[in-house]
Amino acid sequence: MPRPDDDASTTGRLLIVVERSGGFAGLTRTWRVEPAPADRSAWFDLVEGCPWNDAAPPRATGGADRFQWRVTVEAAASTRHAELGDDLAPSWRALIDAVRAGRAPAAPGRRTTR
């Protein structure tokens, strides 16, 4: 996915949507972030850290109440989609957790305030 590091990054759109389906009731939950231009770099780091080329459809695990995840990232003129099972790689888990929390983790050496 092109990383808009030029002037377009301040006017272009970055939208990250995470959907989780399955679980006990089989419901679908959706979380989304559309970060401000000043926060986009941290989000792009999370997005680019995920193995998009290796994302395969979830495999049947036979376990009841397992979650299925769908991650969609829209940036500039491109869109990425990934469908994942509950056995998430650490990079996917970091992105999904950040979207669910509504904020990217702080860069090393940088503290966030609440």
Descriptive notes:
This protein has 114 residues and is an alpha+beta fold. The protein has one domain. A 4-stranded antiparallel beta sheet has the order 2-1-3-4, covered by helices on one side. The longest helix has 12 residues.
**Average pLDDT figure:** 81
State the helical fraction: 10-25%
Uncertain regions spanning at least 5 consecutive residues: 6-10, 109-114
Structural class determined from secondary elements: alpha+beta
- Which geometry do the CA atoms define? globular
Count of discrete alpha- or pi-helical segments spanning 4 or more residues: 3
Reported for the largest beta sheet, the result is: 4 strands, antiparallel
The spatial strand order of the largest sheet comes to: 2-1-3-4
Q: What value does the Rg take, in angstroms?
A: 15 Å
Number of strands: 4
The number of domains: 1
From the N-terminal CA to the C-terminal CA, the straight-line distance is: 31 Å
β-strand amount: 25-35%
SSE succession: HEEHEEH
Pfam families: Emfourin
Question: Mind sketching the topology for me?
Answer:
Elements: H1 8-11, E1 14-22, E2 29-33, H2 40-48, E3 67-75, E4 78-84, H3 90-101
Antiparallel strand pairs: 1-2, 1-3, 3-4
InterPro entries: Emfourin
Task: List key phrases describing it.
alpha+beta, disordered C terminus, 3 helices, Emfourin, 4-stranded antiparallel beta sheet, 114 residues, globular, 26% strand, 22% helix
